[in-house]
Enoyl-CoA hydratase/isomerase family protein
Amino acid sequence: MIGLEKDGGLWIVTINRPDKANSLTADMLERLCEIAESAQEARVLVLTGAGKVFSAGADLEAAKAGLATSPLWERLSGAIAALPGLTIAALNGTLAGGANGMVLACDIRLAVPGAKFFYPVMKLGYLPQPSDPERMAALIGPARTKLILMGGQKISAEEALRFGLVDRLIDGDVVEAAREIAADTLAAKPEIAAGIKEMCR
């Protein structure tokens, strides 16, 4: 249920459980961690989803069984954030719950206009993963982070763009748009691309 396509230095990872809104089980999350941890040689890593939702976060039954507070979420976002290559979240639809972590850890976030963004962790009785509020606040500021995490607000794609939660709206194929953005990095010397990313940290 996690697809991986390798095209030279471009790795495209697809969450593929569209019948369940691409909600994540422990096995799927473990697989995502393994891919991110093995992607040191990837020049560009793109994360996307199958169907009309990027990911609804944790599978509800799995969440009740302990996945909601699993260290796998933090392991995944940490592995993505540490990659030397360019990381792009190609959000084909709504992003919810714990799936926010992997997206916040990416360098660039693209989204389709109909996407929604929400993180109802407090309502469900859990704390967010430790790095998520910090990464979100770095992008959109502490007040807007509280609006989402404490106010429980569902943010439209247009509002997310204004906030800085996403970097560009794509009215079309969001993965193809990610490929276009990836082209210069893929064509550059690896050490130059990695050096620029390190300078931007």
